[in-house]
Amino acid sequence: MFSFSDIIGQEEAKQRLLQEVAEGRIAHALLFTGPEGSGKLPMALAYARYLTCQHPTPTDACGTCPSCAKWEKLIHPDVHFVFPIVAKKAQKKEVCDDYLPAWRKLLSAGSYFSLSQWLDEMDAENSQAIIYARESDEMLRKLSLKSSQGGYKVVLMWLPEKMNEVCANKLLKLLEEPPAQTVFLLVSEAPEQLLATILSRTQRFHLPRLDESVIAQTLQSRFGVLPEESRNLAHIANGSMIQALAAIQLNQDATLFFDHFVSLMRLAYQRKIREMKCWSEELASMGRERQKNFLNYCQRLVRENFIFNLRRPEMNYMTATEQQFAQKFAPFINERNVIGMMEELSLAQIHIEQNVNPRMVFFDFALKMIMLLKQ
Fold first, then answer.
1. Do 256 and 245 share a structural domain?
2. Which residues, at least 6 apart from 86, have a Cβ–Cβ distance to it below 8 Å?
3. Are 129 and 162 in contact (CB under 8 A)?
4. Are residues 15 and 91 in the same domain?
5. What dihedral do alpha carbons 129, 130, 134, 137 form, nearest 10°?
6. Domains identified in the chain, total number
7. Is the separation of the CB atoms in 78 and 154 below 8 Å?
8. Which of 84, 151, 280, 349 could lock 363 by a disulfide, CB 3.0 to 4.6 Å apart?
9. 45 with 55: CB under 8 angstroms?
């Protein structure tokens, strides 16, 4: 587990990292970027394990040394994990180390996961996950200690864009004057949200979307999915292993989001204001991260229904249930209203991120759908 051999696809990227280590060109700060589900976190984990392995082979960590044994349990003393958390002072959970048991549990189940899955693991409820200022003090403390194994010390930060301003500025100072034998691995879904000065002090390592054939083969070999079904799931996944796994597991959120989307469009078309108000209250009861995920889902489904009108199945990425709905609904998404819908969804997402009352946000959005659907 957590080896290069466990990573799905991305063979060229693996070889690049291995070659850089072989040639002694180890960057003190790597920024892993790319689409969700492309394997950024698994790649960073495998690279960290390789750097700390005591007897690495030309292609992977040895898997047998004391360092690798610690990696299997995610308890390597020279590897420090930083990730977004929800501070709970009443439960004395204020830094990443307080959430390490939950983090290890999620990683051990598989390193292809999303922020929403991590929020569920933390029982975040309505709270948004952040990397707090106190975490930077923890990093300074840990990096001031000598390496217990005599090799590299690694800081692996997942979603650095979630750092608050104080933490980001302290990380910048660490990157400007990194401690000896220390490597920073940043795994980002939104690098454009990072400070420009942080970006300038990291070496970007971009991973492309996975090929459909790679995803399909993985679904067959690792999860026992039938060939035809695996090809359909791989197409819907659109290069994301996270989406492919979600499709296998019949992700409950996706089903819930679809039902809410269909309900809204029908209520808006029928102009049932009272029912739309109830709909908005249901959405408001979700946590903010799920609300943002729902708005993302709506944007995808609006786009897919617009493309559906072109009668080009190879350009569509919908499940069988979504396609069945699109047969009748797609004509209502056209060149006269598609831009307006996407703009309203983006605006609603911004308001949710700014902690605007979600009842107001979703009811306002629902009312606007009445006018847009008539265009």
1. no
2. 93, 119, 122, 124, 127, 128, 129, 130
3. yes
4. yes
5. 120
6. 3
7. yes
8. 280
9. no
| Sheet of 182-187, strands arranged across | 79-82, 153-158, 182-187, 29-33, 203-206
DSSP 85: B
CB 99, CB 74: distance < 8 Å: no
pLDDT in tens, 195-217: 999 999 999 999 999 999 999 99
For residue 142 the two structure tokens come to: 């840990």
- Specify whether 78 is located in the same domain as 107: yes
173 and 104 part of one domain:
yes
SS3 label, residue 262: helix
Last residue of a domain, one of 171, 206, 241: 206
Tell me what pLDDT residue 252 has: 58
Count other C-beta atoms under 10 Å from residue 225's C-beta: 20
* Residue 171 and residue 282 share a domain: no
Look at residue 249 in the predicted model and tell me its pLDDT.
Answer: 65
State both tokens at 313.
Answer: 């199945």
Give the range of the structural domain holding residue 355, as residue numbers without chain letter.
252-373
CB 285 within 8 A of CB 277: no
Query: How much is the pLDDT for 275?
Result: 96
> Of 206, 234, 267, which marks where a domain is finished?
206
Tell me the whole-structure pTM to 2 decimals.
0.73
Residue type present at position 316: N
Q: Are residues 270 and 289 in the same domain?
A: yes
My answer on whether 302 and 347 are in the same domain is yes
How many of the other CB atoms lie within 10 Å of CB of 3? 19
Cβ atoms of 256 and 279 within 8 Å: the answer is no
**Which CATH number characterizes residue 352's domain?**
1.20.272
Task: State percent of the chain over pLDDT 70.
Answer: 99
Q: CA of 80: how far to CAs of 4, 53, 59, 83, 184, in Å?
A: 19, 15, 24, 10, 10
Do 348 and 364 lie in one domain? The reply is yes
Q: Which residues of the chain have pLDDT under 70?
A: 126, 249-252
Phi, psi for 156 (deg, rounded to 5): -110, 110
Alpha-carbon distance of 29 to 365, in angstroms, equals 42
Sole residue written with tokens 């903010």? 288
| Euclidean distance between CA atoms 194 and 196, whole angstroms | 6
